[in-house]
Amino acid sequence: MTPTTTARSTGRAGTLLKTLLKAVITVGAFYLLLGHKVRTDDGASVTAFRAILDYLPKIDATVFWQCVALAASIKLIGILASMYRWMLLLEGQGIELPFGHVFGAFLIGRFLGTFLPSTIGLDGYKLYDAARFSGRPAAVTAATAVEKVLGIVGIFITFLIAFPLGYDILGEHAGLVAIATVPIAFAVIGLFFLVAFHPAVIQWLITSVPFPGRSRVSGFLGRVSEAMAAYRSQKLLLANAAAQSFLVHFCTAAMYFFTALAVGAAGAHFWEVTFASTIQIFATVISPFTIAGEGVREIVQTLLLAKKIGTTESIISAALGFWAAEALTLGGGWFWWRRGESYRPAYVIVDGKPLESGPMAMQLGRDTA
After folding, report:
1. How many angstroms separate the CA atoms of 109 and 128, rounded?
2. Which of 17, 64, 162, 174 shows a CA-CA span of 20 to 30 A to 2?
3. 347 Rama class: left (phi>0) / alpha (psi -120 to 50) / beta
4. How many CB atoms sit inside 10 A of residue 165's CB?
């Protein structure tokens, strides 16, 4: 066995081990969540799993399906905004792809991402897809890097908008949370636009101002600054992309309000559930430990909303939010099977010129990024 073959085998074994570990942690998270003791309306103490089984027959089927349809609809708006944001960022790198192609690529990525941690499936597939047909892997990688930062910016914008309207869920800790988080949220958003519009200021700070952990932070900021170089003269495009990021995460957070209504959560109030969901979304996105954020989503939602809408309702509505969203992406499997090796998008335009698209594009030396 050659060293290369051995390395590949080791790599595959490592990947399999990590996947199995994530699966075990996901199952463990649900075990802890569903095995947790809760108090029912009659004062009895039962496991969350038992409470859920007892609660399900009480759900009104008509209300359930109407609210699930509303939840899926508002999530679809967020998905479309995410697709449009990707098209904007590619356009900023001089790459244009048809919306129909991007639509299918996104659904394939989301479909694959259902079985992977965080947003790895979607990010990885659409990066591969755009690079494959444009022949501009460096430009597509830069667009992806900026998109990831924009995703965090979108979460923080949604958090700041929902905070003053939904902070009641934090109870007596609301003031402390505000002091600890609101300045950070403003700082992250402000830093993004500072890097985007005034990169020289960031370079000066990195090289001239001493601060703790500068070596690590400066490396990250330097990479972000390089990735955003193509957008420095496209301020309106970048602002539009940031607005789409807000819409992506606001729609996702609002979706959970409708899933709460679907399961009959009488105490659900729009801004409280939406605010709690911004925190839950952030926890899910940054969690590398479970598959598709399962378990983390339900635990965080329960911690934040149990006192407002009930423990059982919190768990079920969080899980239902995942399925209301992922049901839309099952069509990605259809696109995945239909797009074989012979598939080509209707057109690919790079730097204003039509390009013969295909998997060979990357081998033709056309990447000038």
Report:
1. 10
2. 17
3. beta
4. 13
